[in-house]
Amino acid sequence: MHIGRVTVPYKIETDKVGPYILPRSFVGEGAGTFRLDEGSAPLKLRLSSAERPTQITLDGGDVATAVEM
Q1: Apex CA 46: angle with CA 36 and CA 44, to 5°?
Q2: Is the dihedral of CA 56, 3, 32, 26 positive or negative?
Q3: Are 7 and 23 in contact (CB under 8 A)?
Q4: Chain centroid to CA 32: how far?
Q5: What is the pTM of this model?
Q6: Tens digit of pLDDT per residue, the chain (69 long)?
């Protein structure tokens, strides 16, 4: 996964809720784009579908933002 000019290693997994991406570093929302914080714990990035995802949902606790792919 590329966030700006940085490559972030990740795994794609599935739990009871559905498929998600688990990046090695925290990826969140910041100023209308993605934000990377290598010092924070990663969050699950939810995929709209395992086969052909069209959205990623950034789950930040109470706030979730869908991003078109």
Answers
A1: 50
A2: positive
A3: no
A4: 15
A5: 0.71
A6: 877 788 889 998 989 988 888 999 988 877 767 788 888 889 888 888 878 888 788 766 544 555 555
Instruction: Catalogue the long-range contacts made by 31-37 (C-beta closer than 8 Å, 24 or more residues apart).
Output: 33/4, 34/3, 34/4, 34/67, 35/3, 36/3, 36/4, 36/6, 36/8
SS (H, E, C) the chain: CEECCEECCEEEEECCCCEEEEECCEEEEECCEEEEECCCCCCCEEECCCCCCCEEEEEECCEEEEEEC
Asked if 4 and 19 touch (Cβ cutoff 8 Å), the reply is no
